[in-house]
Amino acid sequence: KTFLQKIRILHDACSGWLVVLLIGMAAGTCAGIIDIATKWLITLKMGVCTNKFWLDQESCCWLHEDQNSKIDNDSCAEWRSWAEILGGHRGHGASDYAVNYTAYVIIAMMFSTLAAVLVKNFAPYACGSGIPEVKTILSGFIIRGYLGKWTLLIKSVTSPLAVGSNLSLGKEGPLVHIASCCGNVFAHLFPKYGQNEAKKREVLSAAAAAGVSVAFGVPIGGVLFSLEEVSYYFPMKTLWRSFFCALTAAFVLRSVNPYGTAHFAMFYVTYNRPWLLFELVPFALLGVMGGLYGAGFVRANLFWCRFRKNSKLGKFPILEVMVITLITVLLSYPNPFTRMDASTVINELVQECGPTSHTNLCDYNVTRHYHGLNTTFVPASPSGGLGDGLKTALWQLALAFLFKCIITVFTFGMKIPTGLFIPSLAVGALMGRIVGIGVEQLVYTFPDNPMWKTDCQFSNGQSCITPGLYAMVGAAAALGGVTRMTVSLVVVMYELTGGLQYIVPLMLATMFSKWVGDALSGEGIYDGHIRLNGYPYLEQKREFTHTTLAADVMRPRPGEPPLKVIVQEGMTIYDLEELVKSNTLNGFPVLISNDSQRLMGFVCRKDLIVALENAHNRPEVTEDSPTYFTLHCPASVSELGNSNPVRLFNIVDLSPIAVSDHAPMETVVEIFAKLGNRQVLVTHNGKLLGIITKKDVLRHIAELEGEDPEKIMFD
Amino acid sequence: KTFLQKIRILHDACSGWLVVLLIGMAAGTCAGIIDIATKWLITLKMGVCTNKFWLDQESCCWLHEDQNSKIDNDSCAEWRSWAEILGGHRGHGASDYAVNYTAYVIIAMMFSTLAAVLVKNFAPYACGSGIPEVKTILSGFIIRGYLGKWTLLIKSVTSPLAVGSNLSLGKEGPLVHIASCCGNVFAHLFPKYGQNEAKKREVLSAAAAAGVSVAFGVPIGGVLFSLEEVSYYFPMKTLWRSFFCALTAAFVLRSVNPYGTAHFAMFYVTYNRPWLLFELVPFALLGVMGGLYGAGFVRANLFWCRFRKNSKLGKFPILEVMVITLITVLLSYPNPFTRMDASTVINELVQECGPTSHTNLCDYNVTRHYHGLNTTFVPASPSGGLGDGLKTALWQLALAFLFKCIITVFTFGMKIPTGLFIPSLAVGALMGRIVGIGVEQLVYTFPDNPMWKTDCQFSNGQSCITPGLYAMVGAAAALGGVTRMTVSLVVVMYELTGGLQYIVPLMLATMFSKWVGDALSGEGIYDGHIRLNGYPYLEQKREFTHTTLAADVMRPRPGEPPLKVIVQEGMTIYDLEELVKSNTLNGFPVLISNDSQRLMGFVCRKDLIVALENAHNRPEVTEDSPTYFTLHCPASVSELGNSNPVRLFNIVDLSPIAVSDHAPMETVVEIFAKLGNRQVLVTHNGKLLGIITKKDVLRHIAELEGEDPEKIMFD
Question: What is the interface pTM, i.e. ipTM, of the complex?
């Protein structure tokens, strides 16, 4: 017997590991395919690989050029721009430019329109980033079909299209949704996880971790993101499985994606120079700027989404996508920092300038040193006055920053998959690089300032400031401002840079960004969208500090009709059917008698309906049959007139969670948040007084915070 | 008013950050001082820096030698061994060896005896690693003085002494205890944290994170350790503060400790070679070996500690320490891998062999290549057949492994500060290095085996196997087997190696180690010691899978005398005093009347005692005065004979947590684990039936698992 038990325990444990292994593999595969498709679609706007049309620009020109500069290269024999294919010449003539521009716009429009049509017709849930909804689902709310197969398929297909159309959005948020869909699909293969909502949520937490893991190539950051931002209940035993899932996904992604480098991470950077103490001031400034941007973005975007919902705009989702795409691509083609996709731009911005960098961003008037016989020596991190290329680049950076700031507000929330990580990182990186170059020039112009004179020698044309690090810090600050992530954000950025010493700048910026953001808009973008959509999500992180009591929140409120209850003996089938029809409550308390009002148990609406249907199917039961919710039920008919009694003891939950009417709401909120139940009964000295549901709690919190509870909730 | 509220919120938030900042700084400072003292004491056993006696060997010889090999160097002019000081010569003559040996033994004996005397006389709580107790405290149990100033001081002083005496123990576990003491001390400076046990526990969680952070220089690993292993309630809002605390501590440590390197971490390694797929087999084997070691260690150590407790041995703690020290130092001096302190040995074992390595561990018969005109070229990672030095080293490694395996069992649990991280890592690293050299020789001897032929070319005398990586993996496996840590262990090792690609070997080994360990001994060393000491700790990670009901666990059990209760009206002061005296219960339920048995509230023993004392001080109250726990209390004396009524409504908790007698124990366990209360009342239809305390739950779980509940608990 004990051996059998051991086998069962082993099988139990194995199925848990197997399900996360499968989810990790599926998420990694999805991410790999999406990655390849996205790269191809992005470069398809520019041209085609003539021999092998299925290759993107990078793979097509693989052997033909140095990979230092990705933005400026547009030349290898196999790769032809649209102008060349249509008979034009290689080069930058006006007509060629016009042809390329037109092709770019038309192709982008096709992509985004196709994405919008697919989403509207096949899987409306595939729109948006999905993170607010996954959060809500993990908190215990059920949205049927949100994590279904169709959503998985359509979101996987439309995400590359949306990114390929050069809209200001990313595929990283959607990847979390896609991974969660994988989690849901595979959970249903295992009865232990498919049939138990709580267990399924554990699996979904692991899947969300795998999503972030593959989105950025950061397994530890993914687990912490799931822990900090997405998950609601995160028992420690699932931490290990989430980690396994995230790592599996990252490895599968690396083996699926043939373009991957030896490093997992999306933007792997190693800086050669340490940061200096005085730089903490500009880093903190970047944090403040990130917080300002984040708060502004959250407010503007929520305003726009509310407007979309309440106006006629919401009725034309495809048209909206087309208009925004047209504006985006028309304005973004002329500027190289918006023409290329955002993740390439970010990668460019966070790099250090090396001796072989030839991009505009590294065009300094470098002092070259003569080293031996006629050999010029370029310093490892060249710097100096602004070159012409860098001056141009600064203008382009500033314009790109402004443009992305504005267009992202209108893009996030459209009815196509719209991730927010990459646009936020891009805005932050643009901002950070500008600030970084500014600080560098400040140090270059005033080399003798006591703040940096001792630490920073501008000798040999070598700078002590790394503008790429500022871009990294700025990116963290902007993303922090928008999402209010903290630890997971720092860990993600740490995994991206791979140097523990840069944690301090990142952490400083993230802290300032969160403080400023929280001061100016109380919630992150995900919580904002949860509230906007009226999902019943009870925020766990905020402390409930009010001193109200359960009696103040429970229904019935004074003056309302009394609570709908069941009495344990004597109600007829008809009475119960009327009770079910008369309202939409989730369940009914069972009392011993109407006189004593003593609470005996709780019956779920769903169970009651099933039981009533079963009773109807028995011929001896009529509408007048009395029902008994007690353990013992009189068997003989004679005592009770002409009807057979119906015993319903089995559907009663004999231990509903109940609190006294004097219980502080703090305790009630804690019970909801930690035990995950849907209602709490309120008693006084054993007598039932009322009921509190999760929605009552949310309504109460909204009231206490001076908001109109009915306006924001349950649309 | 709203402005004032905002100020208050700001102050509230700031005090939270301030307290963790102070704790981080204090923990970092303590760790820095302990580090310096430990290094000095360790090398004091070998000799003295003649000019500057306060310097340890490394600092004394700072400029005089290359730092490649730490084990073999014993030569710089300023540093003199005891034999030299006492008139001998530099060298390895027999008499000098004897003098050095004797000095080593005598000094080690002095250190450990002093430590044991200090602990016994000034702070008995300073013994052991402290982690089991910190875990128990964080779960809600109060051990007075355990985190007090004296413990902090004595543990900080005796930890370096214990490590300096070369016993098989570390200062890393004690650092967690020391950081928690700092946390407790600083929490008392802020009323918000000092007066609220729940808030204080949040601060202590952050302090524990700081402890691990400074112990190994791994801030992220520290936070995850606190989250996974130490903390019981870890609300997400404290995650960020814990991270801040851990990072502050790490930075302060780096600036305090002048010997620190640019990297934070204790053993920073970067390997040049990737691992190969077939190596997963030996890595998994290392995991199994680690699990076997861990399970064996846990069982042997718990057996020995139980023996110590129950026999006369426990009465002579100082003598025990002296005997174990004598055995340890006598046996460890002849072997260089036990003579040096364990962390230096680990550091040596995890390193790669480079072209300039001259230690015995890297003594391969390397093929040197001639490169141009007479220049010999040594490969970057030289390997080949075993040299004589390596053969000797292998014997020494094996002997050191066996010795450490055995002596650690007797060392952990003695009445001095004994950490377990370093000894476990050392055992694992010794084991891993042996396995690694074995695999390397296997590949060298059979270069054509198809398993590795394609991946691994033994060209140019260059190996594809890194025995140092095996040492790292083995260390993780052994520590995992002993403590059953998972995610935090992998993250700690990841932070130590700094390469995401080595996560897979580490994770594989940790998984196997945990599975094997769990199969052979159900609990980790910390949980074992918690059970051994009978602390009321309710394990959260294990699921409660039994189907018992609250009614089966509650007291009174059938046949026992009825529950001690208070009736809300009419009990006299005398009755209440007798009630308090007659038992040691934590509190008493309050009933409406003895007839109805309906529950009205709960009174804590402590509050009742204070209230009774206050009542005694009022002249009009006699022993016969009736008490009223109701809201309204009759004021007039005439109605009630000759005594004034006493109103005790204020001490009643009107909303005690109560469950129905049909509630499954699963729910009750969840309520205890998540809401952190000390008792749950059991009712049936509003009538009080009994009470369940946390100890009842623990006793019940022990019974269900076939253990004798009375034997193991509450000593």
Answer: 0.79
